[in-house]
Specification:
Blueprint: E1 11-12, H1 14-19, E2 35-40, H2 55-64, E3 69-71, E4 78-80, E5 83-88, E6 93-98, H3 112-123, H4 141-144, E7 159-163, E8 166-170, H5 192-196, H6 198-203, E9 211-217, E10 221-226, E11 240-248, H7 249-258, E12 263-264, H8 275-279, E13 283-295, H9 301-304, H10 308-317, H11 321-327, E14 333-335, H12 345-348, H13 363-372, E15 381-386, H14 390-407, E16 413-418, H15 421-429, E17 437-442, H16 448-456, H17 470-481, H18 485-502, E18 505-517, E19 521-522, E20 538-539
Parallel strand pairs: 2-11, 15-16
Antiparallel strand pairs: 1-11, 3-4, 5-6, 6-8, 7-8, 9-10, 10-11, 12-18, 13-17, 13-18, 14-18, 19-20
Length: 540
């Protein structure tokens, strides 16, 4: 989900600190009785489920909504929530039956139409939803969201409401793992108010999850409060969550230590050497389904010209991942050797070493490949990153230093800071990047398909570099259609091998989830996506 440009945040901006002096960055009380205060960052877009594909918005949607399935906060397995059953005889035609008793927080019943209307809205090109490609396998997507020209339909022909509890889905090809994707936020149901008063809903979203939106002051704080009538089996065990906006995660960490904040879910690199002594057993460090990469703007001729694949592979081989993960991240990162995550395991598609020599540190080979590929465009390059958190600058500088040493040129690489995360994401969306830029992927669901298709399939929802390869697309389609899981995984891995040849992005390292919390709260954990399990937290 929270699929694209995933970034962790930190620390209160000065303006927010002033506005929140009594409840956030100042004072000695971390929050109201029963309410947990946590670090956060403003999301890129309004909190529409089909328009949210980055971590910060995703955190809110996880509290605000429940869908057909949810990913187990411990194992990551896709488990039924609103779905009583999802049945198919051919991996192409599915019948979805809902459990009774579910409502939205405004009292409206959750019905089959709540899902079908939401999915049709998300898929329709006129609504400009970033997660629209997640509906591309439903029959009729090409008519509501054509690659060229105007749409010839407003709704997906593959969706049919049978009654309040039942709807059917016809896909345009076999996709055996499709039900496992339905825990992602794009597939959440929506109440009628979303459509009848869209502006009002955006101001105060209404969902069917364990929390309500109480208020949102952009740049300051989003207040979530427990929904007492939540019908699910995982109610909030606290009174609410105050998500406080920070623009420097070092400040968030300082607030945590001072007792002015209860929870941070990204310990800054500069604090890793002493975090255990600072927090003791209140420090969390665990594997997560996250990979960090450098993505190339393949839409620029200088990065997609003939021979540039050698330059991209050479740059990958110029990076000493082992040294950087040890010295900068205190071994809370692991050098990446493929484009997925070890969290998937072998059965889920992870295969160590699939990147091959392209992900191994070899300065001599790096110089050779870059020379053979025609050299760096213009003789030097920049690595772009959002500058509103100090942790990115450290490792970006370390990467440039490694590249410069490998190439014997102190001016070959330099960091290119971009204001805020929102500025950074907007620049990426506008295809305005001149050189490689930092990227991260936090899995939306624990399938190898999710690490490949959104990011590298032609026009994928998170394909920020605009990479396109017909062979890659063909293999992804074949893998999705495979009814045998082992066959599907093997075919996805064949597609990964094309990434190793073309190197549209450079795998850097697999990221652990990290966090720290105050003595005021208990039962704190991160799910496999590295997001706090907010509803399980208790206030002491």
């Amino acid at each position: 989900m929270r699929g694209r440009g995933r970034v962790q945040w930190g620390a209160c901006a000065l303006a927010a600190a002033v506005a929140l002096a009594a409840t956030a960055c100042g004072g000695g009380n971390a929050g109201q009785a029963g309410v947990v205060s946590a670090s956060w960052g403003d999301p890129q877009n309004p909190l529409e489920p089909a328009n949210t594909n980055e971590v910060q918005g995703g955190k809110v949607l996880e509290m605000l909504f429940r869908g057909l399935k949810r990913y187990n906060p411990t194992t990551g397995a896709a488990e039924n929530v609103l779905a009583e059953r999802i049945e198919t005889a051919d991996s192409q035609n599915f019948t979805v039956t809902l459990k009774p008793g579910w409502t939205f927080s405004n009292g409206e019943k959750v019905t089959a139409k709540s899902f079908v209307d939401a999915w049709n809205y998300g898929a329709f090109i006129g609504n400009k939803q970033k997660n629209a490609p997640f509906f591309q396998y439903i029959d009729g997507f090409d008519r509501v969201h054509p690659e060229n020209g105007k749409p010839t339909a407003r709704t997906l022909s593959g969706l049919v409401v049978k009654d309040d509890k039942t709807f059917t889905v016809r896909l345009n090809q076999k996709f055996s793992s499709w039900p496992d994707t339905l825990g992602y936020s794009a597939f959440m149901p929506l109440p009628r108010a979303f459509f009848t008063d869209h502006g009002g809903w955006l101001q105060k979203p209404v969902g069917n999850g364990p929390y309500l939106v109480d208020s949102y002051e952009k740049g300051s704080v989003l207040r979530m409060r427990k929904w007492d009538k939540y019908p699910g089996s995982d109610p909030a065990r606290n009174g609410g969550i105050d998500l406080r906006v920070y623009t420097d995660n070092n400040t968030a960490y300082t607030d945590l230590q001072a007792g002015n904040l209860d929870l941070v879910d990204d310990v800054p690199a500069s604090q890793l050497r002493h975090v255990k002594s600072d927090l003791g057993g209140r420090y969390i460090n665990q594997p997560a389904g996250i990979i960090q990469t450098l993505t190339f703007p393949m839409y620029r001729k200088e990065w997609s010209r003939p021979g540039s694949d050698k330059v991209r592979r050479g740059l990958s081989m110029a990076i000493d991942r082992q040294q950087i993960t040890k010295e900068i991240f205190e071994n809370t990162r692991t050098p990446a050797t493929d484009w997925t995550s070890p969290v998937l395991g072998a059965d889920g598609g992870y295969r160590a070493g699939l990147c091959g020599a392209a992900c191994e540190f070899d300065p001599a080979k790096a110089r050779q490949l870059i020379k053979e590929g025609g050299g760096l465009p213009g003789g030097r390059m920049t690595l772009a990153y959002n500058a509103d958190t100090g942790s990115h600058k450290d490792w970006i500088d370390a990467i440039c230093n490694s590249i410069n040493r490998s190439l014997g040129n102190d001016r070959a690489c330099v960091g290119d800071p971009v204001g805020t995360f929102a500025d950074f994401r907007n620049k990426i969306s506008a295809k305005a990047m001149n050189g490689p830029f930092r990227a991260g992927w936090q899995m939306d669901y624990p399938l190898i398909q999710n690490f490949l298709q959104p990011l590298y399939y032609t026009n994928g929802s998170a394909n920020d570099g605009k990479f396109s390869d017909k062979r890659f697309d063909k293999l992804v389609n074949e893998a999705n259609a495979a009814t045998d899981r082992a066959k599907a995984v093997a075919t996805f891995q064949d597609a990964e091998k094309i990434l190793a040849q073309q190197m549209p992005s450079i795998p850097l390292w697999y990221q652990n989830g990290s966090g720290g919390y105050s003595e005021r709260i208990s039962h704190v954990s991160l799910n496999p996506f590295s997001v706090p399990v907010y509803n399980a937290i208790t206030v002491n």
